[in-house]
Description:
This protein has 412 residues and is α+β, with helices and mostly antiparallel strands.
Amino acid sequence: xxxxxxxxxxxxxxxxxxxxxxxxxxxxxxxxxxxxxxxxxxxxxxxxxxxxxxxxxxxxxxxxxxxxxxxxxxxxxxxxxxxxxxxxxxxxxxxxxxxxxxxxxxxxxxxxxxxxxxxxxxxxxxxxxxxxxxxxxxxxxxxxxxxxxxxxxxxxxxxxxxxxxxxxxxxxxxxxxxxxxxxxxxxxxxxxxxxxxxxxxxxxxxxxxxxxxxxxxxxxxxxxxxxxxxxxxxxxxxxxxxxxxxxxxxxxxxxxxxxxxxxxxxxxxxxxxxxxxxxxxxxxxxxxxxxxxxxxxxxxxxxxxxxxxxxxxxxxxxxxxxxxxxxxxxxxxxxxxxxxxxxxxxxxxxxxxxxxxxxxxxxxxxxxxxxxxxxxxxxxxxxxxxxxxxxxxxxxxxxxxxxxxxxxxxxx
Length: 412
């Protein structure tokens, strides 16, 4: 499964989360990070936007998740999302929960909004209380920093980063009833990435008219095919959250399942999520390569997904890719331990176009050619099970010395 039907939408090269009508964004440095990089940001919609969210399935969940669930659950709408980096506000007890509500209510008051119209997200170190004096000071200054410009969007994107090396943002245009609708997304994520809902922090804006229930259904489906198909290190965060907001200001009729452009919108949303998911995998802590695993011939798509994620999450496979070692044995071992139906005598494996295993038997290949391929910045592993029509794609990265270095000193 690649990027889908390219004719269904148009990529907006200079687009951002503020391109959809009605949205502003911005960020600033309030002092949660030791560097001067922005660490507090917000997205604002000028009207109550229909909203949807998916969250981590980790049993230990940060305080902002409770606040955001409550906000969206009130009436299915949001006007703003307030985000801080540098501190996860996780495992901080009743005080952390009170701090998350104070963030929400203070920003709501500053913007003249009801408290439930604001969602809150946090990312960073677990187990430390927020420096609320700095957060509240930042909230006081934040409204004047919000803008409908690309600069405002970029300031927001900087504000949500932790160990990320690059900002992650994408925007597309899609036709609904002959009119242009925009869908845009921004995300952060580099380490502690092995989602079972979404991953990292992700934010989607659109000016489509769509109900909260319909948006929730589409967001969940897009997440299962994209964010839930990436891994960096096998760890699921306490703070994972993906929130979508639809302003409805495009002027188009409401999108429902019976609308002829509903499927086109759904495909464009999936594409936005896939671009962000792949950007997170490519930006994995210490990573030098994006790794893609394509599984086909499985008994079902769900089975293919499980196998693809097992291969992409294998430390041995990731290490082999880092070392440019065409060790297909690690790949087939991961396929076999995924707990899914496999005919042990019928598996094909390719590294790019290089066939290394056919019908579960080694195929002679040029080691030098394989070495050069594996030295590239993108490695695609193809697995064909020859059982049925199930297929799936997963994304990840190689496992490097720098991953250990970064996480050995994360708090310092």
